[in-house]
Amino acid sequence: MHLNQPAQSDYHMIKTKLVFIALIILTHSWFNVLIACKYNVRETGFADFGRQQYHFFGFVNHKTPNNIIINFEQACSSVFMDCNIVSEIIDINKQRDHYAIQYISQYNIHSFPSGVLVSSDSQVFVINFPTSKPISKKTFESVLGRIAYSPLRNALIEKTIKTYGVILIIEGTNQTENERVRESANQAISAIQSQMKFMPKMIKHPPEVLILQRKHFQDEKILLWSLGLDEINIHDTYAAIIYGKTRWIGPLLKGEDINKINLANILSIIGLDCECGLDMRVMQGIMLPVKWDEKTHARLVKHLSFDPENPVIKLDMNRILRKGLAGSPGTPVYPQSQGTNTNNQYDPLYVIDDQSYIIKPLYYLGVLSLLVIIIGLLFVIKRRKN
Fold this sequence. Notes:
- The chain has two domains: 216 residues; 94 residues, 3-Layer(aba) Sandwich (Glutaredoxin).
- It has 13 helices and nine strands.
- β5, α7 and β6 form a beta-alpha-beta unit.
- It is elongated, with a radius of gyration of 28 Å.
- The two termini are 17 Å apart.
């Protein structure tokens, strides 16, 4: 009888260890389930729900030759394919009641063909075509092509696919200020990089900086216009955060408002769980006018390991985002096309606690650890009584 006691004791010891190991594994599983999220804000930013399209209205009149109209229509179809730009050709003599006719008098348009690009927040950019000779399809495509793509917008597409997001810096006339802003951007990126391992979902590459130099302003007229800027009147340094399908999130920061805190606060939203409770309009940002073709989309799918344009996934994302909108109808939204907002540093919408990615995991871990300890103590007490 006495000879069997050590063996029985060893058996109970092994059994106790196995129970604790099982509890730890179970706790780890529960922990992962509780803090897991389907998508982060960055991922939802790649889904296009068609809410923020741009519209190009081309104007012709009764004097415009039919072959020119055909060239115009064909150029629009080819250039704006795979763009978030919807085009329409309007005969101003036959379609007098069309709501876009208002832009002709409003912007003193006197030559035809011509056109306007209108953003989702009603900004208007007038497009003029050469009138010295009949316009060929190639000429139309050349002029319209500058609306759909540009070197920096192409660079933004590549960066947003591969990285967390982009801090776009628009150079001012003061070089010292430009350098200060660049340093602030680097500091903000370092702050975000230190938090990335605590985010709900892993993002491989940290944010990066892209600089729009003054000498390239002419080539980036449409990009600047979509941010609410006129390339002729830019003297201060500006910064904008771009992510997802080239979405602009947060306010357009200017001068002293461009600092580590403001940049990091806006950037931190991109890494949040899409069910974090923020207003959908905040999480979705404002899309820039870009050409996003099938090859670009294929590269995105490869990086994400899922297709954000899959109807089932889009439906799920849309449900989640609309749930967030319904849950926070009073959330303030910055007027992004109206320049800067000097109070953004103190607005609760963009003030994200530096430890926001740690609090939720630690809370669940603490609760579950306490549960394991209690179960373990009960097991030990029961074993001693037996």
